Structure formats: structure tokens, C-alpha cells
Amino acid sequence: MTYPEAAVVGLIQGVTELFPVSSLGHNVLIPALVGGSWAADLNVASPESPYLAFIVGLHVATAIALVIYFWRDWVRIVTGFFQSFRQFFRPAPGTRRFELRSTDQKLAWMLVFATIPVGLVGFAFEHEFRVLFGKPIRAAIFLVINGLILYAGERFRTRRSLQADADLAAQRAGVPATLQQQPVTASAGAASGGTVTGTRPPTHVAAHATGHHAIRQAEIAGAEQADQRLAAKGYVEAVVIGAAQVLALLAGISRDGVTMVAGMFRGLSREDAARFAFLLATPVILAAGVLKVGDLTGPLGKGIHGQILVGSILSGVGAYVSVRFLVKYFQTRTLTPFAIYCVLFGLGSIIYLQVK
Q1: Cβ atoms of 28 and 52 closer than 8 Å
Q2: How far is the C-alpha of 169 from the C-alpha of 31, rounded, in Å?
Q3: What values do phi and psi take at 106, rounded to 5?
Q4: Residue 291 burial (CB < 10 Å; 0-12/13-18/19+)?
Q5: Within 13 Å and on the Cβ side, how many CA atoms surround 94?
Q6: Number of H helices and number of E strands within the chain?
Q7: Which domain holds residue 222?
Q8: Which of 142, 147, 137, 140 is closest to 341 using CA atoms?
Q9: Is the whole-model pTM more than 0.70?
Q10: Total domains, the chain
């Protein structure tokens, strides 16, 4: 594996893991489309190739990028997870032993239960799935299927999901006005270099700094509200949505894409479905990557440690930029452009692979 190959694969992995277009599908198809040494070096179906371990190992960098972006949320969720054990062993007066008392506690266990189906299937059959379905032509076919799933997810949205979108849009429309009316706190005024004399900062610079602070606070509050909406769905809904990730073991099917479609089918807004998909993907792709670390430090990784480092850095950067973009994108836009892309790229790949 050369450095250019590692760099391209790493960047593709980081970007396409979070975009609903299948990272594995692209990492199977692109080497085959390029041909030559790329097709020989980067063959996921070869049992002795380090490529499969390499691209799955890149998941560690992708997961780290997700943790960095959602770090405040993960602090709350992990704290809630451990607090739930205290509730179990030392229930609060007037509460039952199995009664979870906070949104963070419930969301933590929803993520645990939602991860179980793909964890069991992936642990038992991951290698077989990747080798059997990791052929370029099959990846192209599944990429077309992925596009159809995304299109159907948008075309046949449930009434509950559409209403959830409308409610969020109405709520967000009131945010700018609310932010403009917020008084300046003493800390905000001091940080901006101004003095606090009323409800408005005395300078444009102070107003600008305070505005950024208010917007960030609104984003944090919005994340907590989103988690409250997710926690209200319950464990059965979480397992149903999480089980959709099993399809992502097929090269060409997007983990985040099918999870979002499943979430919208169960009544989530598009924005909340995307958030739950990103949170749910973090432990799954981190575990998948950690399981392959042993392969990369063993015989399969011999001579490519530098390439692994380059690929991991680019994968992490690509993932972080992607999640920042997609979190805002799905507030107002749809899966349809990604559906069209998958169908066109998949069909084009099928034709090219058949005639070349």
C-alpha cells in the first residue's frame, strides 16, 4: 500500500462514513475503477490483504472525530450511564430500582440497546459479509439499492416525521428574536472588553462576541432538547432503528443513511434522525476499529505503519468537517441529493465494470 493510496482511502473513509453514501462501498469501488496497482493493492475481498483491516482500522480516527464534535453530549451521556448504576444499587426515596431519572440516563441505555443487534451480527459475521459482498460489482449494486432506500425514506415520510420537522422549523424560527432580546451578562461584557450598562453591549465588538456566545448556548440547549425528544421514543424504537445498521455490513449500504431512514420511519424529524444516527454510529465504528487494531499491529500491518498514520489523520479530519456540515445540512435539507448520487454512481460503476 502506497502513501497516495492510503491518503485517498483515508480521506474517502472519513467523509463517506458520515455522508449517507457508504464508505465501504466507495473504498471497494474506487480502487476497482482506477485499476492497475490500486485494484491489486486495495482489494477488500482478498483474505491476505491488509486493506480490510486498514479501512476498518480507520474507523478509530472517524470515531474520535465524532467524539470531539459531540464531546459535551458524550460527557452527559456517559455520566448518565454511570449514574444509572447508582440508581440501581441505591434507589432514590420514592423511586423504583429500574427507574431512570434523567434524559441522559435513558438515552445512554437506548444507545446500548440499539447497538446490540449490529454488535452481535457484526462480531459473528463481519468478515464473511465483507469478503462475500466486498466485490466491486456487488458494491455497485448495493450502492444503487442504498440510493433507492434514501429516496424511499424521503418520498414516503410518515405524518409524524413530517410534523416533527414542522415543529422544529417553527421553534427555530423564533430563536433569532429570542437571542436578540437576551441581556448581556457581566462575564460576557468583561470578555468582550466592554462594560455592562444595560441589556445591550456598548460597542459593535461586544455585540458580536455576545452574539456568538448566545448562539453557542442556543446550540447546546438545542442538543439537550433533541436528546429529550429522542429519549421520549423509548427502548423498542431505539432497537428497531439501531437494527437497521446491520444492513451497513453490506458494502454499498450506508450506516447513517439507513439509520436515518429508519428513524424517520419511526416518527423522528430528519434532524433528530441524523443526530441519533451520528451518536449511534460512534460506539459501533469505534468498536469495529479497535477490533482491527491487533491486525494492523501484527503481520498484516507490517511495513505500512506510516501509511496507516497518514490515512488515519485524513480520515479524522474528513469526518470532523463532514459532521459539522451535515448537522446543519439536515436541519433544512433532505436525503434526496445523496440518493440521486448513489444511484448514478452505482449504475455508472456497473456499466464501467462490465465493459472495461
Answers
A1: no
A2: 42
A3: -70, -45
A4: middle
A5: 1
A6: 17, 0
A7: 3-355
A8: 147
A9: yes
A10: 1
